[in-house]
């Protein structure tokens, strides 16, 4: 079975690049991807590596949400809901990362403001509006 591993990887890669036109093609792509994944699962360190890669900080998650629409009036409740957390749990998790919601919002807006001032030659009033300040 292991002698066919490179062939399965190649097939999975080719099928995942194509848009399936029939349900059976989509099912084949899915089966091939699961086969590839099962090969990795046999490696004892794969799960630990995958968990390490997928674990991002709450701060980074909050920042990504805010940066997705910097002009939007974000508040703790909306961001917490986007992360499937309660506002109090989000505050607690951010405190454990030595930061706060308001600190992250300010940092994201300031970073965006600097980018706008340097790259787009906008004035302070325009940049403030683009950053969500009214």
From TrEMBL:
Coiled-coil boundaries: none
GO molecular function annotations of the record: DNA-binding transcription factor activity; transcription cis-regulatory region binding
Pfam families associated with the record: HTH_AraC (PF00165)
Highest taxon of source: Bacteria
Domain HTH araC/xylS-type as annotated: residue spans: 60-134
Keyword hit for DNA damage: no
One GO location term (cellular component): cytosol
PANTHER family named among the record's database cross-references: HTH-TYPE TRANSCRIPTIONAL REGULATOR GADX
Annotated protein name in UniProt: AraC family transcriptional regulator
